[in-house]
Amino acid sequence: MPGVDSIEKYSSAFTLSDMEIFIFPDLLYALVLANIMSPVIWEWREDSWFRNIAKKSPVQRINRLKQFIMDNFVFNLDLDTWGLTTKERELLRFKDFVDEATIAKSNALFGYEGDKYYFSIDIRKHFGLDKYEGNIIPYWKTETVEAMNAFNYKDDYDTGAGECVSLSTLYTAALYIIARISLEDIFLIATPLHSQNFININDGVLTNNRRIVTKNMWFNGTSLSTKARRALENEEVTIISHLSGHIHTVYSKATIDREVYTRFQHALSRYLKADFRSEIISNFLRKENEFQSCFQYCHIIHGKKMFIEVEKIYQYEHTSSKNFSTDSRAALLNEIDTEEFSFTQIPERIMLNDFEEFINNHPDSSVEELDSIMIEELMIEKCPRIEEMFYSLKDFLEVKPRLPETDKTFHNSSPIAVPLEYSREKIIDYITSNAEHNELLRLALYAYRDMERIDWEPYIKASVERNPVSVDAFKTKSIEETMSKIDSLANNSIYDGNRLALPDEVWNFGRGDGIEKAVLAANILKNRNPKSDIKIKIKQNDVQLSSDKIQHRFSSSKNLIADVTV
Questions:
Q1: How far is it, in rounded angstroms, from Cα 258 to Cα 438?
Q2: Beta bridge pairs of residue 253
Q3: How far apart are CA 400 and CA 184, in angstroms?
């Protein structure tokens, strides 16, 4: 049973809000392990979509998985799904763990707005936070794979759903189970406003919500890659989480293996840095389109040199399957109406052909070196924004992530091993057998919610303290109306076996086992009258709820025996 000093952490393994993960970073990987223990993703292996996946290359396997996730899940950031809390309540709850100033620097709910980019797009409005005034803030909760799947039961959804942290932990588990990528090669990256994964294979792959981004995609200048780059370009990384542990920007102790973290730093830096070659220029101009007006392009038409403004080429690219940056460049140019071209060079524009050739002829030169050489040889001063362009090009070619510093005390006392050849049953046995001596594995059991293997107190605490949606839904109903409505919910749990949903999951998804319905009722009654003494007696299929106001029975298909006081 968790001690008094750790009850907040263990109860947080059920609700998994962004704030809780920030305060207790172990929870991020605990959810990964819980998703790996879940039968849901293992069942995907039987889907025909993954037939013969083992014969494919790692990147092909990841792409196959990506399409499955895109087809079956949407990105969801409905801030009302998991209800509201207050800044004061959250600060009071975590006052013994971190101070308000630190939270404000790293959490969008407490004033964090990122760097210059985020100020320019009004980040609070972008995420819908502007509708919450004063001290009211939404919970941002991370969903288990079961809760993600259960969005299928909600109105206006026809697939599963989840927010970015949910998708990153889902991806990590699925990469291991389906794509057969070693957990040693997967790193979870959390910033104050986003969560994604880095997979250290080949040149590197980044997961970004439902999509994946290879190194070539990172530098292709498309809107997708631009969105994928935002977090690492503009935010400080708060947490790096890995099978070996984590490192947190705030805390002085790191549990990740130091050599593993160094390997990650080097691999991510290589992924975020492109070779300066001619092909990259057209990608850069696609992303930073304000510099397109500096250039013209020479194309041979019927044996004659013809010239066109570069921005016109990209306008045609928008509606074409061809690409100006690839081998299909000539085909794209041939799609452009001849009347768009001029027989004479366009004044005050740099010839992009010459610019690209110059880069090819100086393969070992840096951006700064080419800047000074080109001024003399290509007359690039024709573009009044050329100096600004070179600064922007340098940033495009190399993103320098602001990772947690290594001036930490590294302490990795209990290494975890989950080899690829392990079955689900062996993983569950490994985690349960070693949980007594490893807190991360204990937290994984709590995030997994198998009530046979964990203490009930953190589950009940989380249920009655941090499930406000169901409380609000019944605030105008009598006890009789409340119990009648709860009885009418579908009699099946979104969790298999002896695992239990939280009250807001039961209410949001319109279904629950008898035990879950009893806890839902207890949540409503306790929040109406905090001094009430509510008891739930569970004896396999029989569940009795009793208080000074009500006696009610539910039927359960779980195989649990417990006496719980709420």
A1: 19
A2: 409
A3: 23
Whether residues 297 and 227 share a domain: the answer is no
Q: Which residue segment(s) compose the domain that 469 sits in?
A: 449-565
In angstroms, the CA 189 to CA 467 distance is 27
pLDDT of residue 3: 59
Closest to 415 measured CA to CA, from 430, 400, 401: 430
Point out the residues of the chain with pLDDT beneath 70: 1-5, 105-124, 126-129, 132-134, 371-382
Tell me the C-alpha distance between 11 and 424, whole Å: 25
Cα gap 19→107, rounded to integer Å = 8
Q: Are residues 259 and 352 in the same domain?
A: no
Residues 383 and 252 in one domain: no
Long-range own/partner contacts, residues 487-495 (CB < 8 A, 24 or more apart): 487/517, 487/554, 489/517, 491/555, 491/557, 492/557, 493/557, 493/558, 494/146, 494/147, 494/149, 494/150, 495/146, 495/449
Per residue, the 3-state secondary structure of 279-334, as one string, reads HHHHHHHHHCHHHHHHEEEEEEECCEEEEEEHHHHHHHHCCCCCCCCCCCHHHHHH
What is the rounded distance in angstroms from the CA atom of residue 410 to the CA atom of residue 543? Answer: 47
Six token digits for residue 542: 């029989």
pTM of this structure: 0.93
Residue 413 shares a structural domain with residue 510: no
Segment 44-98, tens digit of pLDDT: 999 999 999 999 999 999 999 999 999 999 998 777 789 988 888 988 999 888 8
Q: At 95, phi and psi to the nearest 5?
A: -60, -25
89 shares a domain with 230: yes
CA–CA distance, 347 with 333 (Å, rounded to integer): 21
DSSP string, 408-437: SEE---S-----TT--HHHHHHHHHHHGGG
Q: How far is CA 26 from CA 22, 29, 188, 239, in A?
A: 9, 6, 12, 10
Judge residue 531's burial from the number of C-beta atoms within 10 Å of its C-beta, 0-12 exposed, 13-18 middle, 19 or more buried. exposed
Length of the chain: 566
3-state secondary structure 148-180: HHHHHHCCCCCCEEECHHHHHHHHHHHHHHCCC
Let me know whether 173 and 189 are in one domain.
yes
- Extract the tokens encoding 332: 């794209």
Do 530 and 423 share a structural domain? no
First and final C-alpha spacing in the chain:
17
**182/257 same-domain check:** yes
Domain count, the chain: 3
